[in-house]
Amino acid sequence: MSQILTYRIREVDGRDDEIADVLAELHRLTFFSGASIPAFDRGHWWLAFHEAAPVAFAGVIPSTHIRNAGYFCRVGVVQRHWGHRLQLRLMRTMEARARRNGWSCVVSDTTGNVVSANNFIRAGYRMYRPACPWAFPDTLYWQKRLISGASSHSTHSKRR
C-alpha cells in the first residue's frame, strides 16, 4: 500500500541568493543536464516541501511569444516524490498567480516528456500551434485560457 505524503507549496523570491541556490539544486536533480538553469530572478517561483525538505519547484515568467500571457517555464519533481500529483498541484498554484497577474492565458511546451504532457492534459491545457514556434521540431505547445472575473452563470434566482 502506498504511503500518503503531505506537501506544502510556497511562493518564493528567486532573487534571494539562498532561494536561487535551492531552485538551482532542484533543477540539477530533476533536469540533470537536459536543460539550462533559468534566471530565477525573473517571474514567479514556488517550492514544494515534504516536511522541511524542498522536493519540487515551478516557475512562470511573462511570455515573450504571446501577449498578456504567462510562460510556464519550468517544473521539476525529485524522483522519490513522483506519483503524488505534485506537478499538477504546482501547475494549479502557478495558474492562480497568473490570474492575479491579470494574464489571459498560460503557455508552455514539452519535448519528449510524456508524463508532463499528460499532466498538461489533466490540468486542462490544450495543444496549439504558435504562429512562431520557439523550440524544437518535435516540441508540443500547450495553452490554457484563464477565466477572470465573475462567472456568467449565476447561482442566484432572478426575481422580477
UniProtKB/TrEMBL annotation:
Domain N-acetyltransferase positions: 7-147
Gene Ontology molecular function: acyltransferase activity, transferring groups other than amino-acyl groups
Transmembrane segments: none
InterPro entries given in the database record: Acyl_CoA_acyltransferase (IPR016181), GNAT_dom (IPR000182)
Superkingdom, taxonomy of origin: Bacteria
A Pfam family recorded for this sequence: Acetyltransf_1
CDD domains reported for this sequence: NAT_SF
Protein name: N-acetyltransferase domain-containing protein
Organism: Bradyrhizobium erythrophlei
